[in-house]
Amino acid sequence: MTTLPIPRTAAPPRVSRKLAAAGVLALWLVGFLVLRGRNTLALAEADVTPVHQSLNDLNDTVAANRNSNPLFLYFFNEIRLVVDELARGVQALIAQPALGRPVPIIGWLGVVALAAFAAWALGNLRVALLTAGGLLFVGMQGLWQESMDTLALTITAVLLSLLVGIPLGVWAGLSRRVERLLTPLLDFMQTMPTFVYLAPLTLVFLIGPASATIATMIYAVPPVIRLTAHGIRAVPHDTLEAAESIGSTRTQLLRQVQLPMAKRTIVIGINQTIMAALSMVTIAALIDAPGLGQTVVKSLATLDVGSSFNAGLAIVVLAIVLDRVTTAASVRVERSRRNPSRLGHLRRLWLALGAAVSLGCVYLSYTYVWAAEFPVEPDLGSPIRRGADAVSTWVQLHLGSATGVLKDVVTGVILNPLQALLTQSPWWLVAVVLVAFAAIIGSLRAAVAAAVCLALLVATGVWFDAMTTLAATLVATIVVLVLGLVIGVWMGRSGRADRMVRPFLDAAQTMPAFVYLVPMLALFSTSRFTAIIAAVVFAAPVSIKIIADGIASVSKTTVEAAVSAGSSTWQVITKVQLPMSLRTLALATNQGLIYVLSMIVVGGLVGAGALGYDVVQGFRQDRLFGKGLAAGLAVVLLGILLDRITQAAARRADVMTHAHQS
After folding, report:
1. What is the pLDDT of residue 26?
2. Most C-beta atoms within 10 A of its C-beta, which of 10, 220, 244, 316?
3. Are residues 34 and 154 in the same domain?
4. So what's the pLDDT on residue 453?
5. 178 CB-contact burial (10 Å; exposed 0-12 / middle 13-18 / buried 19+)
6. How many other CB atoms sit within 10 Å of the CB of residue 121?
7. For the packed helices 209-233 and 198-205, what is the interaxial angle rounded to 10 degrees?
8. Cβ count near 616 (within 10 Å)
9. Closest CA to 473 of 616, 581, 630, 634
C-alpha cells in the first residue's frame, strides 16, 4: 500500500517592508484628509500648559530657596562658585581688567607671544606664524576683548573637561564594565543638540559664565573620554605581555607603556574637545556668556549682517588656529614616538630662547599700555562690516529673485505639505504612523522606544512645535543625503576628487554652528528656509565624508569583477557599491539627522520658529521659562526618536550587507 505524501500548507506570503511602508503612508494620507485639523494640540506662542506652569513654579521655588536649601547651599552653589572663580580668573588673565587696572594681567602682546610660542613648541614654526597672524587679525577686526573672552571661557571649559575626561577615559580603557556604563551616557550627551544644555543649567546655576562653562564642559567632554579609552585599548597585547613578562606592575604598564603609546590618540581627543568647546561657548551667549557669541546674537536679532559676519569671521579664525595647533601637536607626538629627533638639544636651545622672548613680551604687556591695549589702527573691522553689508545688499537686489524662487519652491512644494501632514493630522495618528515606521524601518525595540518618546513628547505640551521642527529636519536631511550621495560617491570612486574636496569638508567642520547662520541670513533673510539651508551646510560635510569612506572601502576586486562582467559605471554604483555600503548609508543618515536637528533648533534665531524659538523665549521671559524648558526636553526626545530609528536601520542594513557579501 502506497502512502501518499500529505501536502504541506503553503506559508502565507510575507509582506515586504517597502510595501508595508507604502501601506502605512497611504493610510496616513487618508486619515489626514478625513481628520485634518482635529486634535493637533496646537498652542499659541504666548500660551502655556499646566506642565509649563509647574516648571515655572519650580523655577520660582528654586530661586526662593537657593540660599537656604542644603543641596544648593553646600553643593550646587559651591560648584558654581568654584567654576565662576576659575572662569573669571582666566578672564582676568587675558581678557578683563584685573588687579585694579583697566587692562588684564597679560595684554595683547603677551597673549600673541605666548600663543605663538606654544604653537611652535607643540607643532612647528608654520603653525606658530599662523597662530600669531590669526590673533593679530581678530585684534585688527576690533574684536580683541570679545575674542579673548571667548578664548578664556573655552580654556576654562577645556581644562575642566580634561581634568574629568582623561581619567574617565583611562578608566574606561582599562575596564570594559566602566566602558559599558559610560557609553550610553556619552551617546546621550552627544545626541542632545547644544541648545538643550542651557535651560536646565540656568535653573540650577543661574545665568552667567558658570552655567556657560558647565554647559560647554558637558558638551565637550565626550570626545576626550572616548578617544582616551580607545587609545588605551588599542595598545597591542604583545607589547603588554612583553612588559608584564619583565615584572611591570599595572601602574607601571599604564604609566610607561599604555599612556605613552596612546598619547597621539589622546591629543586628537583634546583637539575634538577644544573644537566642541569653542562651538558651545558661542551658543552659550544666550545665557549671558561673554565674547563673540554675544556679538553674533545681538547682530542676528537686529539683522545686522555686517557685524555678525565680522564676529563670525573672528570665530572661524579662532577655530582654525586652535584646530591647527592641536593637529600639529598630534603629528609631532607621533613623529617623536617613531623617530626621535637627532636635533633634540638644538631644538631645546631654540625653545628656551623663544620662552625668554615670550616672557619678555608678557612683561611688556603687563607694564606698558601700548602693549596691553590692542591698537585701534589698522582697523580691518569697519571695511569688513561695510563689505559684508554691501555684498548682502547686492545679493538681495540682484539675486533676490533667484533665491526667492528657490525658497518659495522648496517651501511651497516640499516643506509646507510635509509640515501640514505632521501638524494638521491628529496627534495620535502621527504617533501611530511614526511607531509603525520605526518597526518597519528598524525593529520592534525601536518601535517601543519611539512610542515612549512620542508619549513623553505629547506630555511636554509642545507637540505642534515639535512636529514643525521635525518637518524642517526631515526636509533638510533629505537634501543632506542627496548631497552626500552625489559628492560622497564621487569622492569614494576618485582619489583625486577626495583630495580636492576633503580639505573643504574638514574646514567646514571646524566652524561653530553660529557661523553658518550669517551668510544664509544675507541670502535668504529671516525664514524657516534660512534655517534649513544653514542646517544643510552644517550637516552635509559629515554625511559626505561617511558615504565617501563607505564607497571607498568596497572591495576593489568586487568592483573589478563587476566591470569585467560588462557592468556600466551606473550599474557598478547602484548594484554593487551602494548595496555593499548600506551600513554606511544608514550611519550617514543617522549623523545627518542629528546634526540637522541641532542646527534647525539654533535656526530659531533666524526665523525658524517652533522649538528653537520656544527655547530662546524661555531665556528671555520668565513666564515662558517652563515652556522653553519643555521645548528643550522635546528636542531631546526628537533626537532620541530619530537616533533610535536610524540606529536600528543601520543594524538591519549591516545584517543585509553581510548576507549580500556571503
Report:
1. 92
2. 220
3. no
4. 92
5. middle
6. 17
7. 120
8. 22
9. 634
- Asked whether residue 109 is assigned to any structural domain, the reply reads no
What's the pLDDT band for 431 if we cut at 50, 70, 90?
very high
Of the residues 340, 369, 391, which one is the last residue of a structural domain? 340
Q: What is the structure's pLDDT at 15?
A: 56
Distance CA 513, CA 509 (A): 9
Instruction: Write out pLDDT tens, residues 307-354.
Output: 888 888 888 888 888 888 888 877 776 666 666 555 567 777 888 888
What does the DSSP 8-state code read for residue 287?
Answer: G
Looking at the predicted structure, is the pLDDT value of residue 12 above 50?
no
Q: Give the model confidence (pLDDT) of 352-388 as tens digits.
A: 888 899 999 999 999 998 998 999 888 898 999 898 8
Distance CA 593, CA 476 (A): 8
H helix intervals, 494-581: 495-510, 513-524, 528-552, 556-564, 569-572
My answer on whether 35 and 126 are in the same domain is no
**Domain interval for residue 148:** 118-340
Residues 6+ apart with CB under 8 A from 336: none
The rounded distance, in Å, linking the Cα atoms of 528 and 377 is 40
Q: Is 2 helix (H, G, I), strand (E, B) or coil?
A: coil
Q: How crowded is residue 40: how many other Cβ atoms within 10 Å of its Cβ?
A: 18
Q: Return the closest-CA partner of residue 305 out of 396, 378, 376.
A: 396
Same domain as 329, residue 389: no
Distance CA 143, CA 95 (A): 11
Measure the CA–CA gap between 230 and 165, rounded to whole angstroms.
13
494 and 625 belong to one structural domain: yes
Residue with the larger pLDDT of the pair 542 and 506: 542
Instruction: Phi first, then psi: give them for residue 379, nearest 5 degrees.
Output: -105, 105
CA–CA separation, 546 vs 282, rounded Å? 27
Are 29 and 148 within one domain?
no
3-state secondary structure of 46: coil
- Is residue 132 very low, low, confident or very high in pLDDT (cuts 50, 70, 90)? very high
403 in the same domain as 462: yes
User: How many domains would you assign to the chain?
Assistant: 2
Extract the C-alpha cell encoding 574: 547602484
pLDDT of residue 135: 94
CATH number at residue 440: 1.10.3720.10
Last residue of a domain, one of 309, 340, 371: 340
CA nearest to 562, candidates 583, 579, 546: 579
What pLDDT is recorded for position 9? Answer: 46
Q: Is residue 609 part of a domain?
A: yes
135 and 37, same structural domain? no
Amino acid at 620: R
The CB-based long-range contact list for 356-359 (8 Å cut-off, 24+ gap) reads 357/113, 357/117, 358/110, 358/113, 358/114, 358/116, 358/117
- Which among 300, 253, 237 has a CA at the least distance from the CA of 513? 300
For all residues of the chain together, what is the average pLDDT?
Answer: 83
Q: Please, which pLDDT band fits residue 499 given cuts at 50, 70 and 90?
A: confident
Any domain includes 634: yes
376 in a domain, yes or no? Answer: no
Same domain, 394 and 334: no
